[in-house]
Amino acid sequence: MEHEHKQHLLTPNQMAMADKAAVAAGVPAMDLMAAAGKAVADAVLARWSRCSVLVLCGPGNNGGDGFVVATLLHSAGWPVRLAFLGSMEQLSPEAAHFFHAWQGDVEGYSVDVLEQTDLVIDALFGAGLTRSLAGKARDMLDEIIARDIPVCAVDVPSGLDGATGAAFGVVAPAELTVTFFRKKPGHLLFPGRALCGELVVADIGIPAAVLEALDIQAWENSPELWYRDYPWPRLDGHKFHRGHALVYGGENMTGASRLTARGAMRIGAGLVTLAAPIKAWAVYATALTGVMVAKLEQSQEAEDFEELLLDPRYNAIAVGPGAGLVGFERIRTRKIVLAALVTGRATVLDADALSAFSGDPQTLLDAIVGPCVMTPHEGEFARIFPEMNKSPEMNKNHRDDKLTRARLAAKQSGAVVVLKGADTVIASPDGRAVINSNAPADLATGGSGDVLTGFIVGLLSQGTSQGMSPFNAAAAGVWLHGEVANTFGAGLIAEDLPDHLPKVLSAFKTRLFTFKK
């Protein structure tokens, strides 16, 4: 459970509640602020050599942390100056205490203080900011950016929304951000992730027990969340215990569904069948050695696919990669999708399976009656949920809030939604969500999403008998997808993903004893 606690993501409001709960449990607020400031000072001392530091303090508790940082760095023999934006009346008792503990001068809040500054400690505003910065604060950040001065941010870079990762106007990018107790969604969601630089999470003495009283619904994706349900092969099992995945393949873009089928095989599906139009059957049959290929007659492909589904051993279905959208292909793809969904079996919908319903998304959403995972990128998401940004439940400050959009889409559709990108969000209809943070830029290559569809459908095919839910299968598939790319490195192409997966799975299995401690 402690491992899972470390993956919790707290909104700024939840972090404030955790602070209050810690104080109610007997931890002095003064001690929390002192520990936060010390954590930042320690991180600075560990990363930078002695240099001229300017600590920018705001009127809230973030500024209080900054007062502590200034005092500790000065005590360590560093040349430190402090600039305070605010008034004494705005400070909490704890922040006021550490303000008075500062023995040096308090500079006027002007860009002139940046002269001869080697490092800025940004303790202006924390993760709970809900407005754009203006006036002196904005001028200061603009000048820091213009002069390219290194920044260490306290909690988040000032101007960053800790709940969404969105920027309120100008934000000075940090080389290092030190946050406290637990990460916030804004640390992982772009552009926040890029603006935070290296992220350090410091323990400041808040008991983990306070988490139990918070309605936490977001986590950073990690095996600690789902390893207990991972469907390793049973010692007494056979191939049907490991499931039978059915993948639909189109007649033109044949590589896409072949990648999906190979991904499903590599992640452990006991059997994989690819249903192919007769025109492309020979291509699939000669290219896929370990995959069974079923023929679909040209005049009745949808009907043949429905007939295949009469076999109950097909317990997970993938439709979309390479399915086709040109002319009659679009109609056929829609029929295939609806035939898969009406079975109520676990289904993964990607790419063309989603775009085929552009202009008529409700037909798709109404057809989802069983376990379903949708894996749209932003363009496909907009086609299926075109009115999302108008929803009254959307973040009023940031209509592009990815976490909220994914959650609302999952709630509306009844499916697990994997909103793909460098900061992929996996959302469940019940409100749970994970943000993936291990995907490298190397994954931006054609076909990688098709492999991800295969990973997820392969896990779902095994999970039917062994207990991996669609939400966990999606989270595991996304994390493994990123981990394979990380371990493979530069030069990655989509074909490498399934073939490199066994090495990652072997290493993952070896690490399990760490999670179980």
UniProtKB/TrEMBL annotation:
<dbReference type="GO" id="GO:0110051">
    <property type="term" value="P:metabolite repair"/>
</dbReference>
<comment type="similarity">
    <text>In the C-terminal section; belongs to the NnrD/CARKD family.</text>
</comment>
<feature type="binding site">
    <location>
        <position position="450"/>
    </location>
    <ligand>
        <name>(6S)-NADPHX</name>
    </ligand>
</feature>
<comment type="similarity">
    <text>Belongs to the NnrD/CARKD family.</text>
</comment>
<dbReference type="GO" id="GO:0052855">
    <property type="term" value="F:ADP-dependent NAD(P)H-hydrate dehydratase activity"/>
</dbReference>
<feature type="binding site">
    <location>
        <position position="158"/>
    </location>
    <ligand>
        <name>K(+)</name>
    </ligand>
</feature>
<feature type="binding site">
    <location>
        <position position="122"/>
    </location>
    <ligand>
        <name>K(+)</name>
    </ligand>
</feature>
<dbReference type="Pfam" id="PF03853">
    <property type="entry name" value="YjeF_N"/>
</dbReference>
<keyword id="KW-0511">Multifunctional enzyme</keyword>
<dbReference type="InterPro" id="IPR029056">
    <property type="entry name" value="Ribokinase-like"/>
</dbReference>
<protein>
    <recommendedName>
        <fullName>Bifunctional NAD(P)H-hydrate repair enzyme</fullName>
        <ecNumber>4.2.1.136</ecNumber>
        <ecNumber>5.1.99.6</ecNumber>
    </recommendedName>
</protein>
<feature type="binding site">
    <location>
        <position position="377"/>
    </location>
    <ligand>
        <name>(6S)-NADPHX</name>
    </ligand>
</feature>
<dbReference type="Pfam" id="PF01256">
    <property type="entry name" value="Carb_kinase"/>
</dbReference>
<keyword id="KW-0520">NAD</keyword>
<comment type="function">
    <text>Catalyzes the epimerization of the S- and R-forms of NAD(P)HX, a damaged form of NAD(P)H that is a result of enzymatic or heat-dependent hydration. This is a prerequisite for the S-specific NAD(P)H-hydrate dehydratase to allow the repair of both epimers of NAD(P)HX.</text>
</comment>
<keyword id="KW-0456">Lyase</keyword>
<dbReference type="InterPro" id="IPR017953">
    <property type="entry name" value="Carbohydrate_kinase_pred_CS"/>
</dbReference>
<dbReference type="InterPro" id="IPR030677">
    <property type="entry name" value="Nnr"/>
</dbReference>
<keyword id="KW-0521">NADP</keyword>
<feature type="binding site">
    <location>
        <position position="449"/>
    </location>
    <ligand>
        <name>AMP</name>
    </ligand>
</feature>
<dbReference type="InterPro" id="IPR000631">
    <property type="entry name" value="CARKD"/>
</dbReference>
<dbReference type="GO" id="GO:0052856">
    <property type="term" value="F:NAD(P)HX epimerase activity"/>
</dbReference>
<feature type="binding site">
    <location>
        <position position="155"/>
    </location>
    <ligand>
        <name>(6S)-NADPHX</name>
    </ligand>
</feature>
<feature type="binding site">
    <location>
        <begin position="126"/>
        <end position="132"/>
    </location>
    <ligand>
        <name>(6S)-NADPHX</name>
    </ligand>
</feature>
<dbReference type="GO" id="GO:0046872">
    <property type="term" value="F:metal ion binding"/>
</dbReference>
<feature type="binding site">
    <location>
        <position position="256"/>
    </location>
    <ligand>
        <name>(6S)-NADPHX</name>
    </ligand>
</feature>
<dbReference type="GO" id="GO:0046496">
    <property type="term" value="P:nicotinamide nucleotide metabolic process"/>
</dbReference>
<dbReference type="GO" id="GO:0005524">
    <property type="term" value="F:ATP binding"/>
</dbReference>
<comment type="subunit">
    <text>Homotetramer.</text>
</comment>
<keyword id="KW-0067">ATP-binding</keyword>
<dbReference type="InterPro" id="IPR004443">
    <property type="entry name" value="YjeF_N_dom"/>
</dbReference>
<feature type="domain" description="YjeF N-terminal">
    <location>
        <begin position="15"/>
        <end position="212"/>
    </location>
</feature>
<feature type="binding site">
    <location>
        <position position="62"/>
    </location>
    <ligand>
        <name>K(+)</name>
    </ligand>
</feature>
<keyword id="KW-0479">Metal-binding</keyword>
<keyword id="KW-0413">Isomerase</keyword>
<feature type="binding site">
    <location>
        <position position="322"/>
    </location>
    <ligand>
        <name>(6S)-NADPHX</name>
    </ligand>
</feature>
<feature type="domain" description="YjeF C-terminal">
    <location>
        <begin position="222"/>
        <end position="508"/>
    </location>
</feature>
<feature type="binding site">
    <location>
        <begin position="61"/>
        <end position="65"/>
    </location>
    <ligand>
        <name>(6S)-NADPHX</name>
    </ligand>
</feature>
<keyword id="KW-0547">Nucleotide-binding</keyword>
<feature type="binding site">
    <location>
        <begin position="420"/>
        <end position="424"/>
    </location>
    <ligand>
        <name>AMP</name>
    </ligand>
</feature>
<keyword id="KW-0630">Potassium</keyword>
<comment type="function">
    <text>Catalyzes the dehydration of the S-form of NAD(P)HX at the expense of ADP, which is converted to AMP. Together with NAD(P)HX epimerase, which catalyzes the epimerization of the S- and R-forms, the enzyme allows the repair of both epimers of NAD(P)HX, a damaged form of NAD(P)H that is a result of enzymatic or heat-dependent hydration.</text>
</comment>
